[in-house]
Write a structure and sequence with these properties.
disordered N terminus
């Protein structure tokens, strides 16, 4: 994960932290927010500045994204100290997340927590058909969908096209979360597919089995869509 420091500041512009109003006293406004500096740390955008008499650094989803909301916050005796403290908060958060991930017994793939999937799905640029497939699989629950049903749900003409798109969605999300995906887990799947789910029982030798979402992915979809 790349370190954030003075060299990492990509822009400097005058703006304010939107979610905290100025404090007022009988003598008028106090501690008007100063220039906010913008930079990066890992996958997050960092904004730092002086607010209400304190140096504050905050992490947000990195543009371009439709996701909003504060990821983490830290304060310090100086702007540099606040940024350093925020780096530590983010790094500790990432360490906890890695420790909370599980290994899927069927595929051997790493499966992150629901919170990680929620964040990643909100950040990466999934296409409309990819989102349609995830939503359809979530609604199908533990029954899952056949490859043809999945293709129909997303408007693809063939299961092969749907499978390529589904695997690509898995790779996008795995890349955002910096998770290595397993290649060749199933003869019927491309790399990235097992990061989102697994195959159900096969009825015939040539049948790949229904595609089923990991529980964590299913819960993430329910929260978001």
């Amino acid at each position: 994960m790349a370190l954030f420091g003075t060299a990492g500041r990509t822009t400097t512009r005058r703006e304010t932290f939107k979610d905290k109003p100025k404090r007022k006293t009988k003598d008028g406004p106090q501690d008007t927010p100063s220039t906010v500096l913008t930079g990066e740390h890992g996958r997050y955008q960092i904004k730092s500045g002086r607010l209400a008499g304190e140096y504050v650094a905050r992490a947000f989803p990195k543009p371009p994204t439709n996701a909003r909301g504060l990821i983490a916050e830290a304060k310090g005796a100086s702007e540099e100290a606040a940024i350093a403290a925020l780096r530590n908060v983010i790094n500790a958060r990432e360490t906890r997340r890695i420790e909370d991930r599980r290994i899927d017994a069927q595929t051997g793939s790493v499966v992150p927590s629901t919170k990680e999937y929620v964040e990643a799905i909100g950040q990466v640029a999934l296409s409309h058909p990819q989102r349609a497939m995830l939503l359809a699989l979530s609604r199908a629950g533990h029954e899952g969908l056949t490859d043809m049903q999945l293709a129909d749900a997303a408007g693809y003409k063939s299961p092969a096209s749907a499978n390529r798109s589904f695997a690509a969605a898995g790779l996008l999300i795995a890349n955002y979360l910096s998770v290595a995906t397993a290649a060749g887990v199933s003869e019927f799947d491309l790399e990235g597919a097992s990061f989102l789910g697994f195959r159900g029982a096969r009825q015939k030798e040539e049948d790949p089995g229904n595609r089923i979402l990991h529980t964590e992915v299913n819960e993430a979809i329910k929260r978001m869509f």
